[in-house]
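Protein fold
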Amino acid sequence: MPLLHLQREKQTYGYFSPERFVNSQGTRTDEIAMNPAYFAVCPPEEIMQTLCHEMCHLWQHHFGKPGRRGYHNKEWADFMEAIGLMPSSTGAPGGARTGDKMADYAIEGGRFLEAYESLMTDDYRISWMDRFPSREKLMAAIANGTTDEMAGDLSIMGLAGISVEDGEITFEPGERPNKSNREK
C-alpha cells in the first residue's frame, strides 16, 4: 500500500517514488505524490487522471519491468491504455505513447471514464483546494477555460471569486449559505 502524499513539486501534477518511506520496523513503502497547487485550477477529471497515471507506475514497479528513471516505456503505455487512459507526449491525440515527459487523456468509452463518472456524483467531490494557487497555474487555467468547469465547486466551498493583490492571485471566501434550519 503506497503512502499518498501532497507535495508542491514545481511543474508536476504528481509523481511516483518507489520505496521512498520506511517505518520503525524497517518496512518500506512507496510514495504517490499529488500536487495540491493544481487542485484549484484543474478539473477533477485531470486530478484523477494524474492519480491513475502514478498508480500505473506503482503497478509496473511491483509487477512489470520499469524503464530507466523517468522513462515511460511500452509496458507502462499498454497498461495505461488497459485502464482507459491514452498516453501522449502532448496530452492530446497524435502524441508519442512513450518517452520521458508524458501526459495522457481519457479514452472515450474506456474504463477510466466509466469509473470516474460513477465516482463523481453530487455526493462526491474533491473538497479541498489551495486558496493561493500560483499565478502561472491560474493564468493557464483561465487561458484554457478550465476555471468555468470548477465554478460550481468553488461556489459550494464558499469561494466567491478571484482577487489579485500585489501580484498574488487568491480565492476569496464568499458568504456561505445557511444550510441549517436555524436562523443565524
